[in-house]
Specification:
mainly alpha, elongated, 2 strands, 7% strand
Length: 187
């Protein structure tokens, strides 16, 4: 097996491991695979001076990424510092997008603190991998959940289903459902 060592942030390593395994195999994801292969086949050195030494604090983890034998012999087994940072940003963006969407979903039935903790627990993002405070800061910077109507719409649909079921059983009359509909229209 041929592989490349990719320095990444701890939460990016966890995200890659969840989605692509360890060692990571990007072949199932066309976009990610093409981006990674581009880094091997057309190395960019534009910002190598800026990224002269990839800080151990910045990239505290590393993950092995499988590459084909053909890529190994034709293009090598290393990424330039510029490509390492560029590819890392792509994976960070995906990890954060995943996090924001999952927490938004959990907020439909949990309070904010519990939604973040559920995300961490469900997907293995322990405190040392992706801290609660870091997730909270990013989520509140990027997601405007307070102004979202998703929670309200979901509640309305669930109420409607329950009321129809109760009406079918005879627990509620059609008059009660009409009253509910009139109140909802007034909102």
């Amino acid at each position: 097996m041929f592989s490349v060592d990719l320095p990444v942030k701890a939460y990016v390593k966890q995200y890659i491991t969840l989605n692509y395994g360890n060692p990571a195999d990007f072949s199932s994801d066309k976009y990610i695979n093409s981006q990674f292969r581009r880094c091997l086949t057309k190395p960019c050195t534009r910002y190598n001076i800026r990224y002269k030494e990839l800080s151990e604090l910045f990239y505290s983890s590393s993950i092995k990424v499988k590459i084909s034998q053909d890529d190994f012999y034709r293009h090598g087994w290393e990424l330039t510092p510029t490509d390492t940072v560029a590819f890392g940003k792509i994976m960070e963006h995906q990890a954060k997008f995943f996090m924001r969407n999952m927490i938004s979903f959990y907020l439909t039935y949990l309070i904010k603190r519990d939604a973040i903790l559920k995300f961490q627990q469900t997907f293995g993002f322990t405190e040392d991998i992706w801290s609660y405070d870091s997730i909270k800061k990013d989520f509140y910077r990027k997601v405007d959940f307070e102004n979202s109507n998703y929670s309200k719409e979901l509640t309305t649909k669930i109420e409607k289903i329950i009321l129809v079921n109760l009406s079918n059983l005879g627990t509620l009359s059609h008059k009660a459902i009409s009253h509910y509909d009139n109140l909802k229209k007034a909102d």
